[in-house]
Amino acid sequence: MASKAQCAFCFDVLVAHFEDRSSLPLSSFEGSDSAAISELTSSSSSSVSSVDTGSFSKVTSANHKSHGSYPLFVTWNVVVRGQPRLRGCIGTFEPQPLERGLRTYARTASVAFDDARFNPILAKELPSLECGVSLLMDFEEASGPLDWEWGVHGIRISFTVSGRRYSATYLPDVPPEHFDSKEQTLESLVHKAGFSGTSWRTLSIKLVRYKGSKTSLSYAEYVAMKKRV
Fold first, then answer.
1. Quick check: 29 pLDDT over 90?
2. Which residue, 68, 117, 124, 222, is most buried by CB atoms nearer than 10 A?
């Protein structure tokens, strides 16, 4: 399952980039997350988050071991007045060895190599950043575009128009946070795929649904965990 230690590792990959050093291994953060975050919370109380379109694999929760291989996404948000704003998000549906995959996509999402929607993250933004890690599982072909459960499934659509193939995905938490219905979600996803033509209802959409385990971590929490490494 996704863990705060994985988010802390992603933060260290980003910080190491700015400090021109090698990041610490994932194992350095494992086991230190609960104590460090509890300590941070107590201290605070007393003082007053483009997609790689690789093929889908049948990955179930039974396959999820602590250092296995997973389809995964890394999300960077900048938090402004308590509200998260998307700063970068990228991942893959091809299972990746956990540490290598997190390292690759933490860096790729932050420097916007493959996503023209965002500018590279700057060092001065670090204190306002939040990192989210999503590990994906239970991929199933849906019977139609509406055959998925709101708030439970992530979805990936694909369709072909005039010989050109389009595809895009939303992670499980995206529809409830940004849309009011499945229909609105699909309309947005079609546009995210780069298609600006007719309504999604006129398209021959293939939809794959999946589930995910996600957690997130603030920069302050990362700093607290780093002190315990």
1. yes
2. 222
- Closest CA relative to residue 105, chosen from 212, 183, 9: 9
How far apart are alpha carbons 137 and 134 in whole angstroms? Answer: 10
What does the alpha-carbon distance between residue 88 and residue 106 come to, in Å, rounded to a whole number? Answer: 9
DSSP 142: -
Give the CA distances from residue 21 to residues 15, 18, 145, in Å, rounded to whole numbers and listed in that order.
9, 8, 46
Question: What is the extent of the structural domain holding 28?
Answer: 4-137+213-227
Q: Which of 36, 67, 5 lies closest to 228 in space, CA to CA?
A: 36
Q: How many CA atoms lie within 13 A of 215 on its CB side?
A: 13
When computed from its CA atoms, the radius of gyration of the chain, rounded to whole angstroms, is: 18
What is the per-residue pLDDT across 181-221, written as a single tens digit (0 to 9) for each? 999 999 999 999 999 888 999 999 999 999 999 999 999 99
156 and 122 together in one domain = no
